[in-house]
From TrEMBL:
SUPFAM superfamilies listed in its UniProt record: Caspase-like
Biased composition (Polar residues): 417-428
Biased composition (Basic and acidic residues): 321-343, 371-382, 389-400, 523-549
Name of the protein in question: Caspase family protein
Length: 598
């Protein structure tokens, strides 16, 4: 009966295997927005979309739609049309590269014609991420959305808030898909931003085309490899993240290549499939049938461990039942007041049954540990085999690409053997580099072709903030290309005291009346100064008084008048008027007042 059941299991497995061998219909929509009209152009999304679209075509997808630089109406139409194709597909994938924004916990994809003057414009001028999820939802087996849109919000500096409490996050917000077999892959973890890198493609896109097309590689493991590659290539600054969940079976974006029949076929592939099916049922009859079918080998030892585990569990259950029965008999004899000898015999039997139960429990735990260890060895061996296969395929792919690159280089060399860097003088090269350094905000001086200390400091600043390592002592074409690849400001704007950064310019800080700019470039209230009493220096005053006292007295008029027959006149200086009875020079006056002078 057990062999018949296992035979039915094998037949079912064969039917499932035939069903999976049927070709799956896979469709993909790839969108890349670079040429934004109201913010700086992005260098990589269009290149990334072309690269990822080519990867899907090489992977054998039935339909691959690559759309570049879409406005809001074109994005809506593209997602609507793709939703119709997903209804007839087993696997549906949407890839988007460009700007994205998170508003109040909801993620939005930004078309190229968006202006986003206020936060409320996000609802009208962008597309929510849910619209892309809605487009892939009809797919029967796998729904995948890949977002390389975790860049800095380019509208943050100009967007006005209509509600002060409205939250506009950095990067994209965490999402939890509600549909089964749905995955959402972010280029950077929620709340963080992604890098475009210095190459033609972003680190995330480059890792995707390297890992996802591996035949038979489970998506969860493939995105794990993508994470490791991006972390390594960005100096552990950017960590891709995957949201959603899949079932227990491996889900590969590209199905595994069928194993050729014949002597070169792997004999363990069928045994492994039967073993996993038997493991799902886990009964004694199934394992017995498996051992009858496969009497030796790696999986046979694993099956024996599982069978021993089941036997130990059965022995434990039997011992537990006997111990229970012995305890019941002991209790019955005690309640019936049986003879002491009978009670002692029942007690001894109960103790022996309990000891047997404990021993069976320990044996069961040992067999379970052995079975778990055997199962872990199986998983490790299969993971190692899968990794070896993936590494081999990656090595073969790298060798093929290297050969293709060599052939291309030889063809280019044959067509243009004299091609070289532009023949410019050092002054012209320096002027070009200075001009680009000014554009990215690292140089304040004019581009005059003189590669002086100021220019060298500017290139050093660019190295610091762009993560490059160019020699600052000279202006090179490599440095020029790297600076040109930056779409906007790289070095932060530094303003003088009393000025603040406003976009790419410095504006003067205006404080209201009664306030002034302090050392921290902030407005602070001016403190009123209280008058301070000072002691007057008395020395000059005393010197002036002494001089006036030492000076001889000036003769002054007495202020009197003297009158005679001729009339009245003021008394002469130094003289005075005396009565008539006084004498003057021994002569008696004539009875009238006289003027007497010293």
């Amino acid at each position: 009966m057990g062999a018949l059941r296992f035979f039915g299991l094998i037949v079912l497995a064969g039917w499932l295997g035939c069903g999976s061998a049927h070709a799956e219909k896979r469709v993909a929509l790839v969108m890349g927005n670079s040429a934004y009209k109201n913010v700086a152009k992005l260098a990589n999304p269009a290149n990334d979309a072309a690269l990822v679209g080519g990867m899907f075509r090489k992977a054998g997808f039935d339909t691959v739609d690559v759309k570049l630089d879409l406005n809001v109406a074109e994005m809506r139409r593209a997602l609507r049309d793709f939703g119709g194709k997903a209804r007839e597909a087993d696997v549906a994938v949407v890839y988007y590269a460009g700007h994205g924004i998170e508003l109040d916990g909801t993620n939005y994809l930004i078309p190229t014609d968006a202006t986003l003057e206020t936060d409320s414009d996000v609802l009208d001028e962008t597309l929510p991420l849910d619209r892309a999820l809605f487009a892939v939802e009809p797919a029967k087996q796998l729904r995948l959305v890949i977002l390389d849109a975790c860049r800095d919000n380019p509208f943050a500096k100009t967007m006005k808030r209509t509600v002060a409490s409205r939250a506009i996050g950095r990067g994209l917000a965490k999402v939890e898909p509600t549909s089964p077999n749905t995955m959402i892959a972010f280029a950077a973890k929620a709340g963080s931003t992604a890098s475009d890198g210095d190459a033609r493609n972003s680190p995330f896109a480059a890792a995707l085309v390297e890992r996802l097309p591996m035949p038979g590689l489970d998506l969860r493991k493939a995105f794990g490899f993508v994470r490791d590659d991006v972390l390594k290539n960005t100096g552990y600054k950017q960590e891709p993240y995957v949201y959603g969940s899949l079932g227990g079976d491996d889900v590969a974006l590209v199905p595994a290549k069928p194993v050729a029949a014949g002597p070169q076929a792997n004999p363990d592939s069928e045994i492994r499939r039967d073993y996993e099916l038997a493991l799902q049922l886990g009964t004694r009859d199934v394992w017995t049938a498996f051992l009858n079918r496969y009497p030796s080998g790696f999986y046979t030892d694993l099956a024996k461990a599982q069978l021993n585990r089941i036997a130990a569990e059965d022995a434990r259950a039997m011992a537990a039942e006997k111990a229970r029965q012995a305890e019941d008999e002991k209790a019955r004899l005690a309640s019936d007041h049986a003879k002491k000898a009978q009670q002692e015999k029942a007690a001894a039997a109960a103790k022996a049954a309990e000891d047997a139960r404990i021993a069976a429990e320990k044996a069961k735990q040992i067999e379970e540990a052995k079975a778990a260890a055997a199962e872990q060895r199986r998983k490790d061996a299969e993971a190692a085999a899968a990794k070896a296969t993936a590494d081999k395929q990656a090595a073969e792919k790298q060798a093929t690409e290297k050969q293709q690159a060599t052939d291309t280089a030889q063809k280019v060399a044959a067509v243009a053997p004299t091609s070289s860097q532009p023949s410019l003088s050092p002054q012209e090269t320096a002027k070009l580099v200075q001009s680009e350094l000014r554009r990215v905000g690292c140089l304040a001086n004019a581009a005059d072709g003189d590669w002086n200390a100021s220019s060298q400091r500017s290139l050093t600043l660019f190295n610091k903030y762009a993560g490059t390592k160019f020699d600052a002592k000279l202006a090179s074409f490599d440095a020029l290309d790297a600076i040109k690849a930056k779409p906007g400001r790289v070095c932060p704007l530094v303003c003088d005291h009393g000025f603040k950064a406003d976009g790419d310019t410095c504006t003067k800080i205006a404080c209201r009346t009664g306030y002034r700019v302090n050392d921290d470039n902030e407005c602070e209230k001016v403190q009123d100064k209280k008058p301070v009493a000072t002691r007057e220096d008395a020395k000059p005053r005393d010197n002036e008084r002494k001089k006036s006292e030492a000076a001889p007295a000036k003769p002054q008029a007495a202020g009197q008048l003297i009158c005679n027959s001729a009339g009245c006149r003021p008394v002469k200086p130094g003289c005075r008027v005396v009565p008539y009875q006084q004498f003057k020079h021994g002569t008696v006056s004539n009875g009238q007042p006289q003027e007497e002078c010293n």
